[in-house]
Amino acid sequence: MRKKNKKRALKVCIRSVYTNKIISSNRDLLAVVFYGTKKDKNSVNFKNIYVLQELDNPGAKRVQELDKFKGQEGKKYFQDQIGHGSDYSLSEVLWVCANLFSDVQFKMSHKRIMLFTNEDDPHGDDSAKASRARTKAGDLRDTGIFLDLMHLKKRGGFDISLFYRDIIVAEDEDVGIHFEESSKLEDLLRKVRAKETRKRVLYRLKLKLNKDVALTVGIYNMVQKAYRPSPVRLYRETNEPVKTKTRTFNVNTGSLLLPSDTKRSQIYGHRQIVLEKEETEELKRFDEPGLILIGFKPLMMLKKHHYLRPSLFVYPEESLINGSSTLFSALLTKCLEKEVLAVCRYTPRQNTPPCFVALVPQEEELDDQKIQLAPPGFQLVFLPYADDKRKVPFTEKVMANPEQVDKMKAIVQKLRFKYRSDSFENPVLQQHFRNMEALALDLMEPEQTVDLTLPKTEVMDKRLGSLVDEFKELVYPPDYNPEGKVTKRKQNDESSGSKRPKVELSEEELKAHVSKGTLGKLTVPALKEACRMYGLKGGLKKQELLDVLTEHFQKA
Amino acid sequence: MARSWNKAAVVLCMDVGLAMSNSFPGEESPFELAKKVITMFVQRQVFAENKDEVALVLFGTDGTENALAGEDQYQNITVHRHLMRPDFDLLEDIESKIQPGSQQADFLDALIVCMDLIQKETLGKKFEKKHIEVFTDLSSPFSRDQLDIIIHNLKKSGISLQFFLPFPIVKKGGTGDRGDGSLLLDDHGPSFPPKGITEQQKEGIQMVKKVMMSLEGEDGLEEIYSFSESLRQLCVFKKMERHSMPWSCQLTIGSNLSIKIVAYKSITQEKVKKSWTVVDARTLKKEDIQKETVYCLNDDDETEVSKEDTIQGFRYGSDIIPFSKVDEEQMKYRSEGKCFSVLGFCRSSQVHMKYFMGNQVLKVFAAKDDEAAAVALSSLIHALDELDMVAVVRYAYDQRTNPQVGVAFPLIKDTYECLVYIQLPFMEDLRQYMFSSLKNNRKCTPTEAQLSAVDALIDSMSLVQKDEEEGTIEDLFPTSKIPNPQFQRLFQCLLHRALHPQEPLPPIQQHILSMLDPPTEVTAKGQVPVSKIKTLFPLTEVIKKKNQVTGQDLFQDNHQLINHIEQFLDTNETLYFMKSMDCIKAFREEAIQFSEEQRFNNFLKALREKVEIKQLNHFWEIVVHDGVTLITKDEVPGSSVTTEEAKKFLAPKENANTDTAAAFEEGGDVDDLLELI
């Protein structure tokens, strides 16, 4: 992946591609080739082509090398080192790029040349060159190398039809939808650092309609909490990574233990209960992995507030049962039409207890450019068990009057916005990535991040104007301070204090406790109270109190 | 979070009288069922290790042992165990010591004994709740003289009551709605007087209803359960419920408007509390085992370095950047402390359920005893509800936790109203995968007939019952009332192992399994439509290549196998001969399994020729030695080879050289081996 010809804007682009790629897909190999240069440097000695960096994992060094071209000084440095030329042949450029790929020893899942340019008709006056470029592009395509055009703004507009349309061909034409290019220029330039993930099926499972009819589905996760990458342990002296080894050994003999030399145990009260490791696994097993259809319910029975875990996505899978897609498609069509969901019992793996899930139909959604916004399939929504629900001590219902509600409606309307699921970045992660970048590139301080999760209070206050005060006047008493501490708390404490029942035990009760040996179940205050009643001095410890009382009643 | 001080005193009051042992043939007696329910209850208590105390009072016992017993009063009632923390001894007693009695006793008398016990034994101790659970079939006569006193006393001392009966009762008028929108059903759909019920029992039912009604009004009837219902839905034991910790904060809209709120976790996945400890297999002590982690350099000697000599780093492309914990801590994002701040409002349809994240649902109420806050929050709840909008908020639990962005939407019930908060994803959490369209895809477009078969399936397997008259929908399978079977199963196994250490783990209890299955009538109704689907949709299993190779697959892969064998043989080295033998043996086994004996036999014959041509006598010796020969009739009925012939096949050939030389000249080589297969 690589390429460029014009000036400052381009260098910014490439640096941005680098810093993003380093985070999003750190296994990708990148190279940088300039064309239209004065000097040349490449394996086949073509003119006007300068290979700045061969294909390799990008790292801090390479970014720093690019940084040398930054600013006025950088411009001069570029002029001296590489220089601007006037002529080049795009087919030769592609040739050089292809050579870079073939020099790499290991297998690449895809190969891509990103062409950064603001020239929409590079060989307008030389049809032979243009035709050679087209042919070469075709050759590359046949060997699995794709071309992405990363065109920059051009006065009068960049006209793809002049030249590039024939060079670039959309991939995946057969699936009938246009895939959004993950590497579109805007994406590459965005400030956000996020790790890219490949589409990968989590589980392939049978969806059983009954004992002998089943189709297969793939389970995917479309939302998954992103964490900061896990750290690597380094040797302090050399900064080289160290290996971590864990071993289990017998304390007495020092000999290493095999898994079979251990068992698993839990202790309740004084009882130790011992199981084999396999047994602890086995007791979690109920069903074979799969989805078992229970039945159907109207969509409106699904309670939004019964959320348990992030939902998953279900899409047909032909790899285990042929014909699954057709049945799946029929189920999806009918569930959408009848507005029902399917309740299933879900066991993703061996030795995993089952849980109930709702398969909620989802229709395919495309935008005007035919880019898929939502894929067709079922959302797999987890349903809570009784144990997962907690009783909440709710506050007494006090209803607002229509006037108050209307005022709040006005406030709500003022603060309307359009929610998009990708509107917010995780400030914690963004800060981490920028910190890394600053350390790697020896920056004085990390690039500033904007915390989008903070409310834009100034804008909000301005939009709301006098509404807030009007609302407060309607709902809050004049002396009420919603920021203050609750003053009533104190009174409550006092009253509960005075309400505390006096612990008085009758002589019979105490005697009964002593004879049954259950005196120890009384609380210390109760025991103290009892001691006081009989004029006994018993110290402060519970055992002392118990001893005194027991002695007293046994004597009596 | 469960609060430890929130403990309960529970008296289990079990009828062991004569009639409890009666049952219909093939059914478990009420006595056995009651024991099961009680075991499950106590089991949960023991394994949850909470501070609740439990007493056990039996009535209908042959003997009498209780504090109130007089000449002819409170007879045949035994306090089996006083109020204390439940333990394995209690479980052991329930399993083996408690036997059906031959007497009968007044259940109201038993109730008085329980009340007396609970009052005396909780004195001077702090119990949040006092509770009596009565298990009886109501077969014994009772005297209603003291009814008023009983009710008065229960109310006065704040003791709650639950009844468990062998049969469901008619809860007339009540829809059974427990405020959750879904319905609790009895075993057999609409309740009707159970079969074989006696006049005495009918009277008993009336009395139980009367007691419960006077204690809790209509709701009281909901506290009468059947045994099988309780086995299915352990959540009926309301004393087991856990309370959430309140989280107080201010909901802010801009800088100038705040509302005092308190939030509670309302849903969060309940996990097994106790983890397994690794112990030495012989001594069963964990102290005998130690686990240690060592770090070593990536050199030939794997030189160990101490943990202090290591630091952490992060990958940055091809580099690893050292970044110590201290530096990381210093440079990391700082949260501004606890908050619940509105970022804006949007249409509720823009926040789809599929984006919900995190591991909890919060219910947000106005602060306690703050009417102004309640009115303010109510305004917001109703404004959002009427506009069909939701709030997007920044939520941070406290200064140490990372901030979240989430949605707060209104929830309005008869008894309460609140905002419900659920976390939403950050951009980094989203995965924008594309999937091929299922529409306009000729390969998977269903026909009209196929569609109507699926239509019929959906109708037949409906899990709801519509009541046209009342306009209500009854949920036949309310999953949120089902207890997680994982806990029950774990407790069952632990208890079994505790009481019978030498025995293998028991099978899963039947009532647990049936609790997880769809209602039988739904499955039954689905049978016909499912078989229709089976005939209309061609569904064929693809055979897995790696694990389960079938004949067809195997023999498609044959070229490869034979090529391998060829290559091995060409090396003329013993090691490779052995590998070839393994291949051949594997081939033979598969061929027998899939009745592909002809292919194998042809292969082996060709191989023998090959061996002779190439003079690989050494290899053939191995074949003979291992007795790998043609597959015979005895092994696969389809084979035409007799045992005799198979033996002969391995014997040295007389005139081998001439025959095979001819074959060789005809150009026979690897290819003719392949053609045969």
Can you put this structure into words, describing what you see?
The complex is a heterodimer of chains A (556) and B (677). Chain A has helices spanning 7-24, 60-67, 71-81, 90-102, 127-142, 185-189, 277-282, 324-338, 402-414, 427-440, 457-464, 467-475, 488-499, 507-516, 524-533, 542-555; strands at residues 30-35, 49-56, 111-117, 145-151, 203-208, 214-220, 232-235, 243-250, 262-268, 271-275, 290-298, 312-316, 321-322, 340-347, 355-362, 365-366, 372-374, 377-382. Chain A is α+β, with helices and mostly antiparallel strands and 556 residues long. In chain A, the strands form 5 sheets. A 7-stranded mixed β-barrel of chain A has the order 5-6-12-18-15-14-11. Chain A is elongated. By secondary structure, chain B is an alpha/beta fold. The longest helix of chain B has 20 residues, at 574-593. Chains A and B meet through helix 2, strand 6, strand 7, strand 8 and strand 9 of A and strand 7, strand 8, strand 9, strand 10 and strand 12 of B. Strand 7 (232-235) of chain A pairs antiparallel with strand 12 (310-316) of chain B.
Number of helices of chain B: 20
Mean pLDDT over all positions of chain B? 82
Beta-strand portion of chain A reads 15-25%
Q: What value does the Rg of chain A take, in angstroms? A: 36 Å
Strand order of the largest sheet of chain A: 5-6-12-18-15-14-11
The total count of strands of chain A amounts to 18
Side-by-side strand order of the widest sheet of chain B: 7-8-15-18-17-16-14
**What is the count of helical runs of chain A?**
16
Low-confidence stretches of chain B: 173-192, 235-240, 546-551, 655-677
Estimate the strand proportion of chain B.
Answer: 15-25%
Amino- and carboxy-terminal Cα gap of chain B = 68 Å
For this structure, the quaternary state is heterodimer
Major sheet size, sense and barrel closure of chain A: 7 strands, mixed, barrel
Helix content of chain A: 25-40%
The shape of chain A is: elongated
Q: Could you report the average pLDDT of chain A, rounded to the nearest whole number?
A: 82
